[in-house]
Amino acid sequence: MTDDPHGETHLDGNAAAGTLAELFTFDVTVAVGRCAGCGRVSTVADTRSYLDGPGMVVRCTGCDSVLLRVVSSPERTWLDLRGLAYLEVDHVTEG
Amino acid sequence: MSWRVARVSGLRDETPSARTLVLDVEDWPGHVAGQHVDIRLTAADGYTATRSYSIASAPDVERVEVTVERLDDGEVSPYLTRDVIVGDQLEVRGPIGGWFVWRPEEEAPVQLVGGGSGFVPLMSMVRTHAARSSSAPVRLVYSVRAPDAVLYAGELARPPGHVQVTYAYTRAVPEGWPDRPRRVDAELLAAATWPADRRPRSYVCGPTGFVEAVADLLVAAGHDPRTVRTERFGPTGGTR
Amino acid sequence: MGLISRGFTGRRREGAEDLPPGQYLTHDFPVLAAGPTQRVPTDDWKFTITTETGARHEWDWAAFTALPRDEVTVDLHCVTRWSKLHTDWEGVSLDTLLADVETSAHYALVESYGGYTTNLPLEDLTDGQAWVAFRYDGEDLDPEHGGPARLLVPHLYLWKSAKWVRGITLSDHDEPGFWESVGYHNYGDPWREQRYWE
Which of A93, B95, B164, C190 has its CA 20 to 30 A from that of C114? Predict the structure, then answer.
């Protein structure tokens, strides 16, 4: 979007929700995660996501560490969560 | 979550560059205001392109409306805003996103701040608010580059009850407008948004730079960061 | 295959006889981002080669740009399926950078400002196959495309040509990089269409 004075290319975790919905039976973007890099705890939606590369990369808003990576081939998907110390998921299901 | 077939049942031009698609979706489960859908297009040779679009309509049984802003160098938006005709079928996945949502059961004051086509999910909130006769008071700040770029201008000219609308025109103002073109700044937010002590739920959506600037200003004005929800909105998957 | 969208073709996908399988031609230079664009001032820039014994060879910007440079015209093949032909670069050959480096290592791990990594056999960096490039199309390399300097290994998919390169660690064992550790092929030869783990 040309209105963006910062010229940055990231969106947020909301933008990753569609891809993640293919993998999980719950909405990962409302889960709370802890960054294994800086320890920041935040909702997955409240992160920075980069969708334009060979795969999807979700980064911590605090320290830019990689929290999550997703690569999809026509046959399968790889998910790397090593940047998340944990994910906390409420049992209350969305409507 | 699987792809569903959607039939285009209506088209509405909102501005010279934005069009609303009315989609009838098979087995649509309904949505919550603020959510989006992914739309997938497939070429005859199997090539596919998927993009996310915010839902503009209030929740409905099997109908969902999305508003698409045309990016001239885009791959999907020119097709959706120029080539699609009523009766065409598209593939849709959704509704998506449980974070940037507003539910009409919530009674706290609502603060909406939208920039450009990032206003679309906020319109779903405004329409949901009206459809459900919510008593939550709503204030809306809409940053837009020029009068002819305002989405849903007719509907916003007579906003349903409890919604107070403030425009910030960033490049060109309407004739007789008392202000110069301006960006949303601390002064405008202080005048047009709920003070922090009313403890509103704030929703900020727009381009990344806009969202980060506005969210920082709201927090600086004393709003609890946990009450400020943001959605960054922009093109993906292409050349800049 | 999904439902065909009537009349949708997507961005013009031009084939050409001399393209690797599954690729199409582009005339733009798409920017692919896995993270924030790094903006490294050349005053702070350093490039370091570290060998398997821990010996370090380091260049600052002045020393690096004083090295003999090559002008090369190469084809780029991105794993996201675009190829761009006949691109003009200036850079320092890895043969030059490795000339005084004593090593018997077989593998290289390339590291970038911002934390990106990619791995490849050392033999793919030598014999005129790879450069640390700092000019593109007659101009200083833009940060969006990896400036001030990026690796250029055009015979492999473009994710191996790390942007904002800061160093190479030589080792006796192969360590998968940023994409190679999550599904992308360890070697990435576009002519054998080595996109993903097999």
Answer: C190
